[in-house]
Amino acid sequence: MSKGKILVVDDDRLVLATLSYGLTQAGFEVIDADNGDDAILLAREHRPELALLDIRMEGLTGFDVAAYLREYLQTPFMFLSAFADEATVAKVKELGAVAYLVKPLDISQIVPAVEAAFARTAPPAAAPAAPVQPPSEVPAQLDPTAMAVGVLMHRYSLPRDEALTRLMGLAAADGHSVQEQARRIVDAVELLARPGQR
């Protein structure tokens, strides 16, 4: 059984073949393309669950493909690039990539990153994502982690996965569990929201 369907896009045929072979061996169903136009057509046809995109390609770039995937197909994506300059990293964050891998990379490093991305983006059976509810119906016992992620998304204009990553980073930096850190954020927000506080 396939671990998931992934679209791999790279204009370097050797890199593309290596990635496709390695991910297929690891149990993924791979659709590959060596340019952005084909990538979009294949994504529309096959609806992959994740895309692994090279950034700099002739014609449509990996950023162009990512913007399309996010806007029209809601497909999560990760970037694989030889470039790690500030402008590139800023654009990666702005687009909301689930991961950013810098070449050269061994397939043995890419497979775990892809598996982690699938784990983050797949709807888990045991812990469904917090349902979107009108504020009046939010139960008092709402999961503080989901609330804290929402606070961080709003405060820093982050996509959900980046907000969760930031929450985990804050927890690690402060030596708290994610749950405890989330509770502290929610408590702080509630404190600020109280009427008459000066």
From TrEMBL:
Gene3D superfamilies: 3.40.50.2300, Winged helix-like DNA-binding domain superfamily/Winged helix DNA-binding domain. Residues 5-118 form the Response regulatory domain. The keyword 4Fe-4S does not apply. The modification 4-aspartylphosphate is found at D54. It comes from the Bacteria. Keywords: Phosphoprotein. SMART domains: REC. PANTHER family: RESPONSE REGULATORY DOMAIN-CONTAINING PROTEIN, STRESS RESPONSE REGULATOR PROTEIN 1. This is Response regulator. It comes from Pelomonas dachongensis. The lineage of its organism: Bacteria, Pseudomonadati, Pseudomonadota, Betaproteobacteria, Burkholderiales.
